[in-house]
């Protein structure tokens, strides 16, 4: 069960902050429509400097190389969740097909 | 007075920021608005190839194995006309410290920055290069900032780039994960100005000199293994550094008659600055959307004069499909016991088609592999593609459609390369040079420069320039 404390970080926690670098109207002029209408955004991780904060607070962090960055806290120790994906039926047969092809050639000889 | 940090103010300080961040005064190499002394610029850091090799040996970069792909070669031969089917070798660059050939260019740039007294390095890259810079900087005790294009506006991240974020953070880098947009360059300039760090651009002299050892090594290894230099070397092409450095290294080793072939994944029709297209492609580098524009205008980068000038060196440039590369990645794993990242196998894919055109006693070297893992596997990329509405099926690779359909071939014989007409590329390059300087009167030495820079002749340059003049007037 999730407790409310999951949204609260304390000094020393690893957190992620969010910054809007350029608002849509501040962006490069020559952009595809779909890119032009959204802001240019950034996320960066570091150690929380402030005593305590909840998601959505403006906080200060110390980055992995020791620089201070200010932004909106969006995550507390967010994970690396990219993965190996699902086995692909279109791929798994390729090895056997190639094996049969080379074997056929050897037998022809 | 506080400096203004809006987009146009920062861009107007570009020249000064880059001069401070590279230690290079690019103007001193320019003899006109068009011409610059490429050889002198590359020579300016003052490293011989032997020095580069020993600097790289210090951090465990280079000396990667050259592996013969015997079973793949015999499969290719079984499907080739009689007497055809060249021997295919692969340079296993994954054996470098951070898992790709990018360690070569990072190692020299980071070493150089440390020698110049910089306290840290910055690179704007979503690829293996970020991990390479962070790894080399860790070894030399420098700080690293990596700026990556990771997310679309829904905050959905490309799995391959999310893996690069993890890798860079594992080496201690401060990683900025950005949304889609060419403003990555603006972000880089902001960071360089704020920190005073070195710009570990992919396009400085050291970034190219570092790759020369790859061409040099493979030429030496081939000579030792098969008694001659390779007949062809196939190189995955994106920004141009890989082709440029490898080709120069081959020449330095004396392999001047080896054919230099570039290969990219065909992503024609997809827009790189499009928020919607961003997650509809399965390759984040090594593709035509970088490969072609960087040939027709190399100076579109984060330095005033790009040292990656692939058009000077390419004998041939070919495209393969996304589905072809996934097929060959699977084949490499199943037939040769090598699990390697998909993007780096672009050149291997092209090699299987080119090998069928060459004689059995000829030798092709595929000059790189890259590490693989979560996010970088064909399984993760195809799962992600399906989640983003891409159709995945087996069939004829001709039915591949970037951004819509990925077709995995039904056999090696279906894998074909599409040749890009290099004369058309040369023509575009010369036209772009014309457009880059308004009302400038070209001097004879400018024509010589453009001829050399596009591997063409003075007369060809002259003809294209006068064609574009006539069109302008009419």
Give structural notes:
- The complex is a heterodimer of chains A (109) and B (474).
- With 109 residues, chain A is α+β, with helices and mostly antiparallel strands.
- Chain A has a domain at 4-79: SH3 type barrels.
- Chain A has 3 helices and 6 strands; from the N terminus they run E-E-H-E-E-E-E-H-H.
- Chain A has helices spanning 33-36, 89-92, 94-108; strands at residues 8-10, 14-22, 40-48, 52-54, 58-62, 68-76.
- In chain A, the strands form 2 sheets. In chain A, strands 2-3-5-6 form a 4-stranded antiparallel beta barrel.
- In chain A, strand 5 and strand 6 (68-76) form a beta hairpin.
- Chain A starts with 7 loop residues before the first strand and ends with a helix.
- The model of chain A has no long low-confidence stretch (mean pLDDT 93).
- Chain B folds into 3 domains: 7-40 and 102-205, 3-Layer(aba) Sandwich (Rossmann fold), CATH 3.40.50; 52-99 and 206-419, Rossmann fold (3-Layer(aba) Sandwich); 430-473, no CATH class.
- In chain B, 44% of the residues lie in helices and 13% in strands.
- Chain B has 18 helices and 13 strands.
- In chain B, helix 6 (102-115) runs parallel beside helix 7 (128-140), helix 16 (422-436) packs across helix 18 and helix 17 (444-453) crosses helix 18.
- The longest helix of chain B is centred in the middle third of the chain and has 22 residues, at 205-226.
- Chains A and B meet through strand 3 and helix 3 of A and helix 5, strand 4, helix 8, strand 5 and helix 9 of B.
């Amino acid at each position: 069960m999730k407790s409310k404390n999951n949204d609260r970080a304390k000094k020393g926690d690893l957190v992620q902050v969010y910054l809007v670098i350029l608002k849509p109207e501040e962006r490069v002029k020559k952009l595809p429509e779909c890119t032009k209408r959204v802001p240019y955004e950034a996320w960066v991780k570091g150690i929380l400097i402030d005593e305590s904060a909840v998601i959505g607070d403006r906080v200060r962090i110390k980055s992995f190389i020791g620089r201070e960055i200010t932004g909106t806290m969006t995550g507390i120790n967010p994970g690396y969740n990219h993965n190996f994906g699902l086995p692909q039926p279109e791929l798994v047969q390729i090895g056997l097909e190639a094996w049969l092809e080379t074997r056929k050639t050897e037998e022809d000889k | 007075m506080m400096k203004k940090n809006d987009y146009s103010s920062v861009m107007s300080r570009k020249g000064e920021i880059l001069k401070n961040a590279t230690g290079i005064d690019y103007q001193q190499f320019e003899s006109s608005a068009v011409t610059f002394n490429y050889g002198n610029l590359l020579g300016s850091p003052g490293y011989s190839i032997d020095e580069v090799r020993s600097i790289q040996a210090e951090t465990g970069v280079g000396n990667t194995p050259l592996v013969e792909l015997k079973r793949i070669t015999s499969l290719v031969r079984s499907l080739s006309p009689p007497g055809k089917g060249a021997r295919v070798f692969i340079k296993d660059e994954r054996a470098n410290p951070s898992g790709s050939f990018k360690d070569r260019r990072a190692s020299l740039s980071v070493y150089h920055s440390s020698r110049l007294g910089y306290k840290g390095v910055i690179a704007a890259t979503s690829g293996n290069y970020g991990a390479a810079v962070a790894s080399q900087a860790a070894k030399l005790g420098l700080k690293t900032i990596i700026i990556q294009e990771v997310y679309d506006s829904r905050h959905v991240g490309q799995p391959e780039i999310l893996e690069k974020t993890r890798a860079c953070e594992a080496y201690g880098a401060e990683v900025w994960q950005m949304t889609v947009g060419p403003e990555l360059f603006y972000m880089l300039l902001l960071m360089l100005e704020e920190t005073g760090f070195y710009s570990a651009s992919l396009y400085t002299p050291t970034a190219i000199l570092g790759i020369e050892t790859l061409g040099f090594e493979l030429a030496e290894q081939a000579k030792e293994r098969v008694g001659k230099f390779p007949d062809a070397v196939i190189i995955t092409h994106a920004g141009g550094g890989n082709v440029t450095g490898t080709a120069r290294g081959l020449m330095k080793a004396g392999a001047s008659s080896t054919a230099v072939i570039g290969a990219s994944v065909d992503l024609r029709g997809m827009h790189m600055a499009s928020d919607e297209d961003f997650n509809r492609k399965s390759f984040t580098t090594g593709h035509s959307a970088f490969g072609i524009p960087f040939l027709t205008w190399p100076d579109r980068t984060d330095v005033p004069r790009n040292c990656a000038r692939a058009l000077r060196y390419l004998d041939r440039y070919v495209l393969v499909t996304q589905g072809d590369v996934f097929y060959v990645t699977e084949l490499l794993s199943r037939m040769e016991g090598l699990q390697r990242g998909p993007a780096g196998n672009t050149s291997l894919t092209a090699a299987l088609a080119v090998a069928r055109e060459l004689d059995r006693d000829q030798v092709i070297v595929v000059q790189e592999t890259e590490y693989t893992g979560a996010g970088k596997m064909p399984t993760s990329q195809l799962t992600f593609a399906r989640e983003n509405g891409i159709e995945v099926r087996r069939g004829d690779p001709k039915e591949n459609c970037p951004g819509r359909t990925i077709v995995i071939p039904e056999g090696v014989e279906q894998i074909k390369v599409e040749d890009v007409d290099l004369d058309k590329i040369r023509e575009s390059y010369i036209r772009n040079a014309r457009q880059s300087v308004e009302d400038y009167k070209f001097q004879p030495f400018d024509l010589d420069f453009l001829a050399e820079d596009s591997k063409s002749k003075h007369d060809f340059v002259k003809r294209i320039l006068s064609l574009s003049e006539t069109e302008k007037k009419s």
